[in-house]
Amino acid sequence: MSKISVIGTGFIARGFINLLSDHPHHTLKKILTRSTIEKRKDFPCNENMTNNLEELISESDLIVECSGDAIYACETIDKILKAGIPVVTMNSEFHVTVGSYFVDKGLVTEAEGDQPGVLAMLHEEAIAMGFKPLVYGNIKGYLNHHPTLEDMEYWGNKSGISLDMVTSFTDGTKVQIEQTFIANAFHATIAQDGLLGIADDDTLHGGTILAQKAKEIGTPISDYVLSSTLKQGVFIAAEHNTNQADALRYYKMGDGPYYVLDRPYHFCHLEMFKTVDRVLKGGGILLDNSSHPTISTTTIAKRNLKPGETIVKGIGSFDVRGIAVKIKEHKGHVPIGLMKNAIVKRHISEGEELTFDDVELPDSMAVDIWKHIEKRVCEG
What we know:
Helix 4 crosses helix 8, helix 5 packs parallel to helix 8 and helix 6 crosses helix 7. By secondary structure, this protein is α/β, with parallel strands linked by helices. The protein is 33% helix and 21% strand.
């Protein structure tokens, strides 16, 4: 019986813990929370909660990290890996901000379930079948860079997810982070700042447009299609050897030269167990940000910002949003995962990118690690 502990008390953690309670081969040990335990009677397995990271580590065979907080996860995962405990995450924010630092520090992998992990599994299947990926694609249903608080509160309450989560989904920050992650993981690139985001209700047609762009660039790309009718999943647009053209035509994959493999669903916490079992059985890492990333998710002002204003949390805020960019072309940018309790130092116009000269950030391990990563990338 494997002893599993969880960091986080949000939507993903709740669903995973509810599922874990019924699992025949795993047992829940501890749930790490920063909140007051006595006030969390609403949360499943409240008796397993702790505010003590060391207690969590000492009782665990594997730890699932799903806080969605890059700065917090940086500090906890550092201590967990030093203790020799493997970590399975559902936290793309952590990976694209500081994950590259931890690639050689121990076993930490993103889980299958959210779009990046599902794309990683589709990638493994595609390569095993001889496909040559050109596009690692996300399918996004709706995009509004400037949603209203009223709309986000409505959809958050209706969906049962937090205000910052639903806002980051809506303003595009989440898909930008996810595709940043995928680009780094599979040594792909991006076609432009902020991605192309092809509006198309047909993944073969939209995937073909993106594949043509990848061929033009000369390397695979990470991007997405925007469609209100397609199911929310992922896809890979790929080539194959011409000697398989007849077979692929018979398999209803079309005439080529581009073929689309899609996965029209992702079940987040329900699928996480596949990666937990993979790790416990010695299967190794499914997905990480690579030790040498080239893409980051920078911070863009959603409104005019004034000196002295404090941005409590960047991801999912009404102050800023994130877009994917090439690190070398945006030296000094602030990754949106670091935008917590950031004090604005000068007037910043809507649409402007924020740099370290523009904001004052609290000291943290994550900030130090990012600066080390950026220096290594830009000097490499």
